[in-house]
Amino acid sequence: MDRVVAIDLGAESGRVLTVTLTDDGFQQEEIHRFPNNPVQANGVLYWDVLRLWHEIQIGLDAAGSGAISIGLDAWGVDFALLDKAGQLVANPVHYRDARTNDVMNWVFERIPRQTIFERTGLQFMQLNTLYQLASMLRAKSSVLNAASTYLSIADLFLYWLGGKPVCEFTHATTTQFYNPREGNWDWETLGAIGAPLEIFPEIIQPGSQIGHYHDIPIIAPGTHDTASAVVGIPTMAEDFAYISSGTWSLVGLELNAPIINEAAYQANVTNEGGYAGTYRFLKNVSGMWLVQQSRATWKAIGREYNYDQLARIAENESPFMSFIDPDDPTFLAPGDMPARIREYCLHSGQPVPESDGQVIRTIYESLALKYRHVLERMSAASGKAFSRVHIIGGGSQNALLCQMTADAMGCPVYAGPSEATAIGNAMVQFISMGKIGSLAEARAILNRSTAMKIYEPKNKADWEEAYARFSKLAK
């Protein structure tokens, strides 16, 4: 039996797992789980990467010996800068930090918005790496002046493990300065904003071996966590859509080429690189972030809930009271999310949710309806139809949200696995190490060994009426 170590870093928590390939499929064991807590210092929101590195080492020590390889994936868009000696110049800044406020227009003054999309095919979000980098250029950052190498967050940890200082393809495509037509960094856009071009390293393909941790090969899987999650979809079908559900909901379709056309531009959707020549045609939707922040707000005043309790109190509330657009800028920054939701409903002329259960039900119903709104536009822009939706990641364990999604979509929802990201990470490692022949073979193994829960749509008429109301708010 062959075993790999999969390190998965999410925006809320990280984990180190071992995944073993057996005659019965993939068997995973969580070795170490740890929180990923950002740190506010002197008005800046940072990632605590040294703490994460410490936790990764704890997990690797606990995993012991015997693994044939190690792989790591992490959240997208954020980055680290190294100096000429290969040392970290400064702690990486969090994508929710306020430094990107008003930066998009600064960039558009130098390159037209539509030109950027035609070059990169990426969704416009102020947290994109392009605008984080531009904020440093606009401020004439001394940190940037000291930089010799740019690495994504995942690439940084792979480098610290013993890998080469390179950028992996699936992560590079989240930056909004990767050109899929050229297969390289978008040098024109980077040059137009005055970026130091020499700091951007070689881009490698997922599945590449990039070094050794002691004597164990290091594999760069799909190092963007969504890329690994999509690998870990347990399906043999081709007509599927997916939702990788966590802090963000990544809602999309798996295609063989990017879709860069007027419909995709108008829908503000994205083309991110996948494994084995695929592209993730998707949209970032603010997902469980809204629930996480609501939970934190209530905990601070003495009302503590776990996620199962939140689902129960939401289920007991009346349906379709009010809706929000989960991607309204009001909800981007950390803070009192229940108060912002009430304010949004008040200003949009809807009943104001008062109880905690009403707030959570408003979030869940709005997410389910937003998923439909997004997928209808993505299907139209790509010409790809779908007959089922796979929900993977932590949100696949939320039975209420899964059922609401099936109801809103009007098609079956297949839920699981919850650790699709770590499993997808491991699957690429097994393929790279020659233990599995292809992505199709790996998915076949996963399909027969994964217990998925299927949610059939209900209450069609009520959800159609709700969608008509929601569509007036959605962007």
Percent in helix: 25-40%
Strand order within the widest beta sheet: 17-18-16-15-19-20-21
Query: Rough shape?
Result: globular
CATH T-level fold name of the largest domain? Nucleotidyltransferase, domain 5
Number of domains: 2
Major sheet characteristics = 7 strands, mixed
Structural class: alpha/beta
CATH superfamily of the largest domain: ATPase, nucleotide binding domain
Low-confidence stretches: none
The number of distinct helices, counting runs of at least 4 residues, comes to 18
Proportion in β-strands: 15-25%
The CATH architecture designation of the largest domain is 2-Layer Sandwich
Short description:
This protein is an alpha/beta fold and 475 residues long. The protein is built from 18 helices and 21 strands.
Please tell me about this protein's structure:
It is a single chain. With 475 residues, this protein is of the alpha/beta class. The chain has two domains: 2-225, 2-Layer Sandwich (Nucleotidyltransferase, domain 5); 233-416 and 437-475, ATPase, nucleotide binding domain (Nucleotidyltransferase, domain 5, 2-Layer Sandwich), CATH 3.30.420. The protein has helices spanning 49-63, 103-108, 113-120, 129-138, 142-145, 153-161, 169-172, 187-192, 225-231, 262-267, 289-300, 307-315, 337-347, 356-382, 399-409, 420-432, 439-449, 460-471, and strands at residues 2-9, 13-22, 25-35, 39-41, 44-46, 70-74, 79-82, 149-152, 167-168, 178-179, 184-185, 203-204, 208-213, 216-220, 240-245, 248-255, 270-273, 279-286, 388-392, 413-415, 453-455. The strands form six sheets. The protein has a seven-stranded mixed β-sheet, sandwiched between helices. Strands 3-2-1-6-14-13 form a six-stranded mixed β-sheet. The protein has a two-stranded antiparallel sheet with strand order 4-5. Strand 1 and strand 2 (13-22) form a beta hairpin. The longest helix has 27 residues, at 356-382. The chain is globular.
